[in-house]
Amino acid sequence: MAKSNRINKWLISGPPLLYLIIFFAIPSLIMAFAAFRFPGDYGGLLPLIGPNPDTGANELLVTAENWRDYLTFENFGLFFTDSIYVELFAKSFWYAGITTLICLAMAYPLAWLIARSPKKYRDLMILLVILPFWSNFLIRVYAWMIILGPQGYFSMAINQVLGLIGIGPVQLMFSHVAVIIVLVYVHLPFMVLPLYANLEKHDMALLDAAQDLGASGWQRFWKITWPLSLPGVWAGAALVFIPALGMFAVPDLVGGTDGIMIGNLIKQQFLDSRDWPFGSVLSIMLTLAVLLLAGFAALIGRGGKRNAL
Amino acid sequence: MHSKQSKWLWAAALLAYAFLYVPLIIVVVYSFNDSKLNAEWVGFTFKWYDMLFKNEQMLVAARNSLLIAIVTSVCATVLGTLAGLAMHKYKLRLLPLLVLTPIAIPEILMGVSLLIFFVMLNMTLGLVSVALAHIAFCIGFVAIVVRSRLQGMDESLVEAARDLGATPVQAFRLVTMPLIMPGIIAGALMAFTLSIDDFVITFFTAGAGASTLPLQIYSMIRIAVTPEVNAVSTLLMVLTLCLILLASKLAPSALRAE
């Protein structure tokens, strides 16, 4: 019995495990290793295996004497010596942070309203939040390219208003503002869903009790609802912040030269300048940032839950 | 709730809904506009749809997308269901980590690491490499849906079947399988949609060999905003809506907000 159980266990978990080891774990490790290598003559990576000049047979080129020609810490050095890279990281954090805050401000009233609506409408209201998210990501970006474009009604209206108070026409497309608007737009549902899941479980009797005891509306919100909803807030923040941080298509399409983020630099290293080792360094830095943030969010989330109980 | 408060809440919520829907409505409306610019309304036309169906590149890209999405959803559903079952049944360490991390990290990281991997294997980038990559990131989504379905299942049903003399395989086939079927279907549809929509991972693993719809749209909107994109976007939205309706018919419980 115990033996057949073990066989079952491997039969069930084996195939997905094997697949993910080959197509996720190994590529990730190869990328981590690539950060310590040199770029090849025509981009990519300097090969570690190649034909022996004497025999012509393929063999490992790295030896105990020449490993310095193949392995290096220089790529990491470059990241820290030139301040533009760290600055770009800081800017990306700033974009992702602002995006998260705006998403929170927009999602909270919505999630609260849905959670307090009659039960029969809730599924529909949530479905309406998710529905736009099911349309293609690029379409959602494109929609804003129309709106923010110089010929769009929105841009013209804004410029007309600004013109009245004597400020010259502004270009909305290809700016920080455009990047943040679109980042908010594509991530908003990720904030609404965890908030709603949390707010829906709140016991309304707590609010009634507070009201009976004389608490005002704001007091009830800040002393009861907000602290109880913190786990939902942190979950939503993680779901918005992390993908926003690694985004490259949004800044690429609406950010112009001013609005680029880490993702654009990574893409540039891999596809344009083809410096894979440095691209790998940037990817590792992004991974580390994400892991730190996820750990941080989990820690605070747990703390929040404990406080709430 | 005070009526004054709820008025503000409704205003804020309506604003959020408008923010979500107005841009998409604009895309749809302009797809019928008889002007090359997405600005002034000139008149009603189907010509952008007509052009779309004559656009050879676009049709090839659509065929590629469909092919990849079908292969991906079949493979990811099988592997993801196994992963969901394993994660529910056994205490595992490595599998949950490998299943959940691809979902949690920014997509670009998986894209570039798979690019290095495929190039190192001397693989020609194309439909195969894209499908292999899509399967890898879809497994996790299927596994989560299937596992949550299993967690909501009444274990005593399986025990009852065993008490009544069913073998473990019979109990699985006749009791567990039908019960988790809505989860499996939902997972398959999710994998299909994720695959057909994916841009970032496809962008890195497709090479020059294979264009998909998102890649085609990307290269078009990078150059200029054209109503042909509005037309293809509208069609894609209709397709997605149909898929969601199908899902709600096949597995109503799977669509519940979670």
UniProtKB/TrEMBL annotation, chain B:
Where does it reside?
Cell membrane
Q: Which parts of the chain span the membrane according to its record? A: 12-32, 66-87, 94-119, 125-146, 171-193, 199-217, 229-248
Q: How does it sit in the membrane?
A: Multi-pass membrane protein
What InterPro entries does UniProt report for this protein, alphabetically? Bact_Polyamine_Transport, MetI-like, MetI-like_sf
For this protein, the record's Gene3D superfamilies field holds: MetI-like
Q: Does the keyword Translocase apply?
A: no
What are the ABC transmembrane type-1 domain coordinates in residue numbering? 62-247
Give the keywords, sorted. Answer: Cell membrane, Membrane, Transmembrane, Transmembrane helix, Transport
For this record, the Gene Ontology CC terms, alphabetical, are:
plasma membrane
State the Pfam families in the record. Answer: BPD_transp_1
What does the record list as GO biological process?
transmembrane transport
Family matches, as PANTHER family: PUTRESCINE TRANSPORT SYSTEM PERMEASE PROTEIN POTI
Q: Which family does it belong to?
A: Belongs to the binding-protein-dependent transport system permease family. CysTW subfamily.
Q: What is this protein called?
A: ABC transporter permease
Organism whose genome encodes this protein:
Chitinibacter mangrovi
